[in-house]
Amino acid sequence: MIIKNYVVNDMYEAMVLIKKELGNDAVIVSKREVRQKGLAGLFKKKKLEVTAATEVISQNGNGIAKRNYNPPPQQEVIKEAAVHQESRTTEELKEEMQQIKSIVQMLVEKSDSRLEKEKEATIKDVMIEMDFHPVVIDDFEQYCKKRSLKPDTADNTVLSEFVMDRFDRKVRVEDVGGRIKTFIGPTGVGKTTTIAKLASNEALVNQKKIGLITIDTYRIGAVEQLKIYANILGVPVKVVFSPEDLPDAIEQFNDKDLIFIDSTGRSHKNIHQLNELKSYLDQCSNIKIYLVSSMVTKNVDFARTIENYKNVGFDSLILTKFDETYSAGNIMNAGYFTDKPISFICKGQVVPDDIEVASKETLLKYIWGEVK
Ligand SMILES: Nc1nc2c(ncn2[C@@H]2O[C@H](COP(=O)(O)OP(=O)(O)OP(=O)(O)O)[C@@H](O)[C@H]2O)c(=O)[nH]1
Ligand SMILES: [Mg+2]
Question: Nearest residue CA, atom 17 of ligand 1?
């Protein structure tokens, strides 16, 4: 059996494709309307998802051979049914008709309420699909209530108005700058890569004198990773093994325009590790702390990361891995969980190209699903 899914504009398009790919014997198993991705998808025409199937018994060099279809001996069944029918009284038939009527009525009611539920689920589904945090979804429900609207049945425009309003008021962007910058955050979010991108641009485009420091002596290969970038750029690196040595390392880079400090990836759940990180940062003054966080992180962990890193302290956010997700909810989630601005967004692994200064315009495009 071959089963294939087709996402098409209409049934005609589906039939042409199914006939071409699965042949004349294919049958349609199901069809349903599907919404396109992103907030903008709410306003686009729905597509049709059609599932078709065909039976296959063998495959040879000439392609797929299909089983001959032998219809069941229906003549026999029909004859039997006719004899049975004659023997029934009019009363019995009336009763049967009544039963059929009530079954049909029940089915119609069920399908109406299912359709209603599907409609109700749409707005919330979109918010969940976009990975909005439950706090944002609650806020939307309050927003609707204040306008005497039912959140579940509010139309698409209400959600867009809400998103625009909250985005405007809660999400901030700003490059917070700083001569000494450190990059903190969970493991693997792109701290070292982001340093490489920023340092490259500052060294090569802006001709700045750069010094790199790493306090990441925890992960095997971390120092070498930073040294590789430093060698390519021709800038010096210092490795710091304890908090009290950090001020001295910074001091030695007195002649540098910019100092980038890399740190060990720390889980937001490990309070002991976060305190250890804080003990390094407490040694320095005039340092800008960038919390790096990945867009791929699910909303609850993203929010918890922000919450738990507040104890370490940070001045701004860098959001990475935009290229790896369709769900831009974390942009909004950031606005709800911190009043610190977003400074940069990263959208790929390429150093130094895949980074840009965060702008509200670009962030909105991600929310609307206009960036693929
Ligand atoms: N797709 C994508 N990959 C990225 C991005 N930024 C970084 N990466 C990749 O993510 C992986 C981890 O990057 P690192 O820079 O080593 O992350 P880190 O936060 O320093 O990791 P730890 O030091 O182990 O905590 C690497 O494969 C990077 O190339 C991005 O914006 N998009
Ligand atoms: Mg790293």
Answer: 190
Which of 359, 332, 299 lies closest to 170, judged by CA? 332
CB 188 less than 6 A from any atom of ligand 1: yes
Measure 346 CA to ligand 1 centroid, in angstroms.
Answer: 10
Under DSSP, the state recorded for 324 is G
Those residues whose C-beta lies under 8 Å from the C-beta of residue 358, and which sit 6 or more positions away, are 173, 175, 319, 341, 342, 343, 344, 345
Residue 324 in contact with ligand 1 by CB distance below 6 A: yes
Q: What is the pLDDT of residues 189-237, one digit of tens each?
A: 999 999 999 999 999 999 999 999 999 999 899 999 999 999 999 999 9
- Domains, the chain, ordered by start: 2-65 (no CATH), 120-170 (no CATH), 176-368 (3.40.50.300)
The CA distance from 56 to 64, in Å, is 7
Residue-wise pLDDT tens digits, 308-366: 999 999 999 999 999 999 899 999 999 999 999 999 999 999 999 999 999 999 999 99
Q: Is 323 in the pocket of ligand 1 (CB under 6 A)?
A: yes
The preferred substitution site among 294, 349, 353 for testing ligand 1, maximizing ligand atoms within 8 Å of CB, is 349
